[in-house]
């Protein structure tokens, strides 16, 4: 076939696809940019920071709009009022979780994060109850975090005020808290297997936020047939799952149903209780997938936020100094901080909240899903539509934040210097799908950061001006650039 004939055929096929999309387009969809066949809107998106494109489009199409990621229809919700109306006021309609292809590939639809219906309801209720029973958000957990803070201080002291990369020391500390809850043990910072697991967890989040990871989620049928980093990450995830299987077997061999030690024990007891129920959600696949969910979420999100926090405190040394003066006045440098101290540390509390707002860790949110047709603000959202309640637009909403693009702790302080809440503070999302570990994360951020500032002043070799606080990756997550930290004992 000659070139003109080929081009003509290609043009006819494209026209046919456009016609089919137009004829099959559901009525009463929210407005949005014109989408091309097969590729949708991805050619006009910022693939390094897609949430920026959505925010830009919303100025033209409004706070409720339709876009296409490849052939997949996506509903984008922009701004605090819109996101709150969907996730909180219409929680039952927006409770669905999208079957994100890469997450589905590694977890097969099992576990807490991407499941729906009865599976999600049972696993969330069980997880919340069990984690609370073992101290999440309570005094028992507070003492664990205080103890782990001392281990972190010891390892940082060994740097002798020399530059070091804080990434995996922070990951070890934070991960040990979720490991105590889930596996019933903490791991030594010198444990090479523990470090390997943390490296894998980090690579999973980095891949999911990369352009290649986003492309996988748009065209999984294509990327699965190509060589690439996704194959390595999938193999690495199997290492984490194999580790979890070994831990589960160890628990089975030593299980005392009358004295459960941790999350795994409680799950195994429930699994045994429901072994004759053919419809039970308490089975081995859901256990392994939920352990992976808890291990990843309980490690990377909080440790990355602390890494960002230290970077911002170096960038703003006057804020770091003011926090230290407040901490010295209220707690001193010897006693471990407790959550009871938070109300007496309004500036410190405001800074920690502002770090979470400014970091904007998960700008796109974990995607929701229309499990049934939804009526919202006069529009009809068809079943099968992915829903992105844009957390970035909430944490940068100009109607709710005086200086949304600036790191400014005054966002959380009143005129008298007292801490004040802001309804648009949604780093953990909102509604029925809000983060299960929110209370744990809040406790970890406060105790770890206050403990670190009690004992160290933080700088970097090139000074504050050398730090680039813009994210290295801005896909699913905003991930900070690597930097060298100097921790000088006080």
What is the fold's blueprint, element by element?
Elements: H1 3-24, H2 50-61, E1 64-69, E2 72-77, H3 80-89, E3 96-97, H4 101-107, H5 117-133, H6 139-157, H7 167-182, H8 192-209, H9 211-218, H10 220-223, H11 229-253, H12 263-273, H13 284-297, H14 300-315, H15 317-330, H16 346-359, E4 368-369, E5 374-376, E6 379-381, E7 386-389, H17 391-395, H18 438-455, E8 456-459, E9 473-474, E10 478-479, E11 486-489
Helix pairs in contact: 6-7, 6-18, 7-8, 7-14, 8-9, 8-11, 11-13, 14-15, 14-16, 14-18
Structural write-up:
The chain has 490 residues and is α+β, with helices and mostly antiparallel strands. The protein contains 18 helices and eleven strands. The strands form four sheets. The protein has a five-stranded mixed β-sheet with strand order 1-2-7-4-3, sandwiched between helices. A two-stranded antiparallel ribbon has the order 5-6. A two-stranded antiparallel sheet has the order 8-11. The longest helix has 25 residues, at 229-253. The relative contact order is 0.16.
